[in-house]
Write a structure and sequence with these properties.
Distance between the termini: 37 Å
Number of helices: 7
Strand content: 15-25%
Oligomer: single chain
Number of strands: 8
Helix content: 25-40%
Radius of gyration: 18 Å
CATH topology: Nucleotidyltransferase, domain 5
Number of domains: 1
Strand order of the largest sheet: 5-4-1-2-3-8
CATH superfamily: Ribonuclease H-like superfamily/Ribonuclease H
Largest sheet: 6 strands, mixed
Length: 279
């Protein structure tokens, strides 16, 4: 664990995880071989007063499934995953956020490909900023005290926590030069961001479930070079995604930068376009 967390001083907790490995040093060939091009980041916001109940539900799921871990990838049976998602969706109160990015399409301000296999944290941090932007707006619109919200990120070789904190501050200063970005990241307190191993905090499995449900749409599985997606997992969690103006798009769900530009398969693009009309 990076840092020691005093949970008592917070009223809300945000758990952040990923699916799609940003640390691969090569891109895929488009037929299911090589790396995963998509990085799906998810955040789950819960109230501190709900933590005891949430942990009880997660322990209950582990007991029913006879598993020591609730990592989505470790649940190999389809119906185990459905039971897990159905239980958390119906019995746990949380608000979900996610960003979807593609290493082959995301470019920096100069038009250069943002993904650099020699500097993995740079790409990861850039995408984390987009997720924290959504979280900051939520905190602002819902009048949450920024000092009372804790952010926990799954620790990984893609994350350099101190570098990311400095990056947040830099981006905030740069954006505030423009009036329209007046509130940009202002509701994020860097000192409230911690990195922790997934095994050390069962609550992180909630963020893992959200990110993994998106993974099964963006990445899916390949058979003989043909991609097959599984949208049912994400469907089960859709009602938890943050909505603004009755839509999760550009509220709880963000494509970096546009849905048409992230290289989704036709089937995945069709899925997201359908939920855009209904959510």
């Amino acid at each position: 664990m990076t840092g020691t967390i005093n949970y008592d001083q917070y009223e809300h907790i945000v758990l952040i995880d990923e699916s799609g490995n940003s640390a691969y040093t090569k891109l895929s060939n488009g037929k299911g071989y090589g790396a995963e091009d998509f990085l799906n980041l998810s955040a789950v916001l819960i109230e501190k007063k709900e933590v005891k109940k949430i942990k009880e539900q997660l322990v209950y799921i582990k007991s029913v499934l006879g598993t020591q871990k609730l990592h989505f990838a470790d649940l190999h049976k389809h119906y185990e995953k459905l039971f897990y998602l159905k239980t958390i969706s119906e019995n746990i109160n949380f608000t979900a956020f996610a960003t979807i990015s593609n290493k082959k399409t995301l470019r920096d301000e100069n038009g250069k490909l943002a993904y650099d296999p020699k500097n993995i944290p740079s790409y990861y941090h850039k995408n984390l900023i987009f997720l924290f932007e959504k979280l900051s707006k939520y905190v602002y619109y819902n009048k949450i005290n920024p000092n009372k919200i804790l952010f926990i990120i799954e620790n990984s070789k893609s994350l350099s926590l101190e570098e990311f904190k400095h990056y947040i501050n830099k981006v905030r200063r740069d954006k505030q030069k423009e009036e329209r970005w007046k509130y940009y990241l202002n509701n994020i307190k860097e000192e409230n961001i911690y990195a922790i191993e997934k095994e050390d905090e069962i609550l992180l499995t909630l963020a893992d479930a959200v990110a993994s449900s998106i993974y099964h749409v963006t990445c899916g599985k390949y058979f003989d070079g043909q991609q097959i997606i599984e949208p049912r997992y994400m469907y089960m969690l859709l009602r938890h995604f943050y909505k603004k103006d009755n839509s999760i798009f550009n509220a709880g769900l963000k494509f970096v930068h546009k849905i048409e530009n992230v290289g989704l398969s036709d089937e995945a693009l069709n899925f997201f376009q359908k939920i855009k009309k209904s959510h």
